[in-house]
Amino acid sequence: FSLVFVTGALNFDLRVNDYKSADLENHYFTVVGRVNQEKDTEYGKYLVLDKVNLDGVYKGDINYKVAVYVEGEVDYQIGNVIFFESTLFDKSIFYDEKFSSYDVVRGIKYTANVNAEDVYFVKDNPTIFQSINRLIKENLRSGYQGDEFSVAYAMLTGNDEYIAPETISSYR
User: Fold this and answer.
1) What pTM was computed for the model?
2) Which backbone phi and psi does 28 adopt, to 5 degrees?
3) Could you give the CA distance from residue 121 to residue 75 in angstroms, rounded to a whole number?
4) What confidence tier does 38 reach under pLDDT thresholds 50, 70, 90?
């Protein structure tokens, strides 16, 4: 048990140090990435991009994901490759002055804020799992609404981003 604990702690410590050392220092970039997660928000969409390529002060592929807050109406879905230009802000491992492993574990290191008219579709390139996820989502949306959809979708895919915080609280 001690060996497993020490190994896990060292592995997490390495991940945290790698996360902290991956700062891009809040520079402006041309960003191309594939939508890995998407969620409607009060002001538009929240997208998480993987397979991200940057052009700017740093050029090339990055190992971390980018959380993009898109203000306005866009209809991008999981698997779409998109393009935009924006400042990428480095995320901290602290939230409200407390250590938070949420982004470290999920690999989300950078954030960007863009307007919907500044985001462009490049191509549709979903993985097999993203294609299945999209199929499940479309079928559930055709038969369920609101909390019914979000709970069924979470149970089938493990993706709880559509569940309202009060519903998650009730289930917990």
Assistant:
1) 0.82
2) -85, 135
3) 10
4) confident
